[in-house]
Amino acid sequence: MSIRECSRRKAFTLIELLVVIAIIGVLIALLLPAVQKVREAANRTSCANNLKQIILGFHNCHDTYKKLPPIAGPFPDKTANGYLYDPTTMSLPHGQRGVGNPFQFLLTFVEQDNLSRQMFTYAPDPTFPDGIGGAPLGWNDSNNTYSIPVKSFICPSDPSATGNDCMQNPGGPPWAAATSYGINGLVFDRSTFNQGSTTVPPSVTINNAASLGLQFDGTPIPPIYYPTFASIIDGLSNTVFVSEKLSFCMVAPQGPQELATNGGQCNGPGGDLYCGGSNWSDPLLDFFAPVYNDLPNGVITTAMTPQIGVNYQLNCDPTRPSSAHPGVINVALGDGSVRTVATDVTPLTWLLVNTPNDGLPPPLDW
Question: Residue 128 has what DSSP assignment?
């Protein structure tokens, strides 16, 4: 045997190579779910941190003004930023001017001062009676501030917020900026708890949004309700203030049909029961407002439970809280704490912990 023959190395056979590739494939298949779980856990923590910033921002707002913004309307008072209501004609001479939702008034308390100042800077509109006009918090904001995303308002697990905007909301471009959260309408509007009976389940009715909110294209008219911590008689630690709410939701087949008919947008002017979402800059009480527990008629029942692990393109109700997390949804309580709520929460428990004045202790499954 020659030296050349003794030093020759044996090559892999085709079968051996295929076995190695198969082993690598099995290892990847085993590791991928673990990697996805780690990623989702990190995203869920990030979503919870966002909620923490939001609820602490509301605390800072309350410390400053001794009250919270309304579900929709002027803030910090009933004539702020040019809001004008004529009670004799039940009209709004200045249109949407001065109308905002709690997220818009929250900006300065979550380190978004520059964005807040830009929102309140607008071009004069000579068509208004006072020669100033404009809507610094509305859709004719001359700086298009409503289209600028805020990172802390978006949950990285929200599959509908990949572009940081929501082109399904009629009116763009530019499109309204997305948020993955919604404020509890029962807290930010005056609400009345109905005890129910042995045959009728309990419910909650909200006032302004229920009776007047969808007039004037969703622009609220008085009475404007400003909640305070003292008005939460059930206790801040027992009341949900903010929940996750996907930036876009639709119910099939109606929702997809609307998108196909309207060039990728929901029915105007502000979506409907089958097609809507949550935009931080939507100042009106329509189906894209960053609010839950208000629509469609202001009567909230035990049916308005959170949608957990929901498919936003198939069976997602835009009026209810929603989360893409497997098995849980994040919520912020009035005392500044953040917790997860699992799928086993009962409908009655969810209604009670969202109602600020039912006078009942939280059930044992909370």
Answer: S
